[in-house]
Specification:
Blueprint: H1 2-21, E1 26-30, E2 36-43, E3 47-53, E4 56-63, E5 68-76, E6 80-81, H2 85-92, E7 104-109, E8 113-115, E9 118-128, E10 131-147, E11 152-164, E12 181-192
Antiparallel strand pairs: 1-4, 1-12, 2-3, 2-12, 3-6, 4-5, 5-7, 7-9, 8-9, 9-10, 10-11, 11-12
Length: 193
């Protein structure tokens, strides 16, 4: 009888450990007060044009134990803000983001790459101007913490990549010497649901 009890306890502990290892990932909703995307592009070697997109929505699924997750982020192109109304209109025009035909950009990833406990990159697909191509975001920093105001766990990070905008058909002013390469960054914070 004692052997049976020990075997039963061992089996229960084994099942408990297996269940913990395969826990479902938690879902986090992007917090629009702490999330935005930016870009920076050289302007003929004289200056750097920078702007940000203030309306970013989406979800993150994250399984800490498995170091795995998914990200689905949508950026409202019309929320672009450069500090100049004229430049904002130009950015929304057909030769750049073409906001009338393509009002959103979207980044989707189903993989998080860790080195030990540190998130190092997020490979995914960026849809811009109706075209989808791979982009890998480098993680500059990433952490989860108990957010005292939201009264739930928050996970967030700062990510960046350099893309060739002509891959998506954004060719404006390239023939005049404006660079193809654009640095993009994403500052994301999401609250556990």
């Amino acid at each position: 009888m004692r052997q049976f009890s020990v075997a039963l306890i061992a089996a229960a502990l084994g099942l408990g450990a297996a269940g913990a290892a395969h826990a479902a990932p938690a879902t986090y909703k992007i917090d629009d007060d702490h999330t935005y995307a930016t870009f920076a592009i050289d302007h003929f070697g004289a200056s750097v044009n920078r702007a940000r997109f203030d309306t970013v929505t989406g979800t993150v699924q994250f399984d800490k134990a498995a170091k795995a997750g998914k990200i689905d982020v949508t950026v409202d192109v019309k929320s672009v803000y450069s500090g100049s109304k004229g430049f904002d209109k130009h950015l929304q025009a057909a030769d750049f983001f073409d906001a009338a035909k393509h009002p959103t950009m979207r980044f989707v990833s189903d993989k998080l790459v860790f080195q030990g406990d540190k998130l190092v990159e997020v490979p995914g697909q960026l849809t811009l101007l109706g075209q989808t191509h791979p982009v890998t975001l480098k993680a500059n920093q990433f952490a989860c913490y108990p957010n005292p105001l939201a009264k739930t766990e928050a996970c967030g990070g700062d990510f960046e990549a350099v893309i060739d905008r002509t891959q998506w058909g954004m060719n404006a002013m390239v023939d005049m010497g404006m660079p193809k390469n654009v640095k993009i960054t994403a500052t994301i914070e999401a609250f556990k649901q």
